[in-house]
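dumping this here so i dont lose it
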């Protein structure tokens, strides 16, 4: 795949494949990334720059504008290739999450299980940990319906 580089600043550049490099002293070193506690790939831009989300750097740099919401089309938070990223509205992002089963269930690596938490009207309720992801989603949607009399996607 062809890789295009664009400058973020005079010290850093980002590629269309989601890589970030330092141009410090003409070295062009690819920077190491890590994974944030929310699952996104992040990179540290110098001591004062702090950690930045790689997907935001790619979209903001290549599209020339800062967007409030960026969606990963394939649902993989570490796939920061430009073709996989799309700026969108919060509503579109929410619909994408429901369509791809990303709401109410998260993986807890401490317990090695799927956690069900429902947030609605600024209230949060925990419904347990589950071995299987499908079981966690079944419980989440059943509990949501039991609590609110409708399925979560009915308001989208």
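and the seq i came up w/
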């Amino acid at each position: 795949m062809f890789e295009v580089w664009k400058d973020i600043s005079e010290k850093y550049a980002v590629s269309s494949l989601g890589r970030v490099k330092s141009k410090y002293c003409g070295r062009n070193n690819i920077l190491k990334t890590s994974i944030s506690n929310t699952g996104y790939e992040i990179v540290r831009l110098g001591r004062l720059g702090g950690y930045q989300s790689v997907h935001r750097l790619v979209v903001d740099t290549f599209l020339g504008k800062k967007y409030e919401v960026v969606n990963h089309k394939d649902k993989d938070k570490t796939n920061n290739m430009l073709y996989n990223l799309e700026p969108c509205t919060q509503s579109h992002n929410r619909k994408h999450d429901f369509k791809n089963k990303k709401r109410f269930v998260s993986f807890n690596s401490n317990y090695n299980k799927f956690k069900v938490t429902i947030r609605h009207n600024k209230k949060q309720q925990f419904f347990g940990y589950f071995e299987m992801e499908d079981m966690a989603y079944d419980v989440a949607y059943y509990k949501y319906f039991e609590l609110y009399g409708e399925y979560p996607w009915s308001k989208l």
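The two ends are 37 Å apart (CA to CA).
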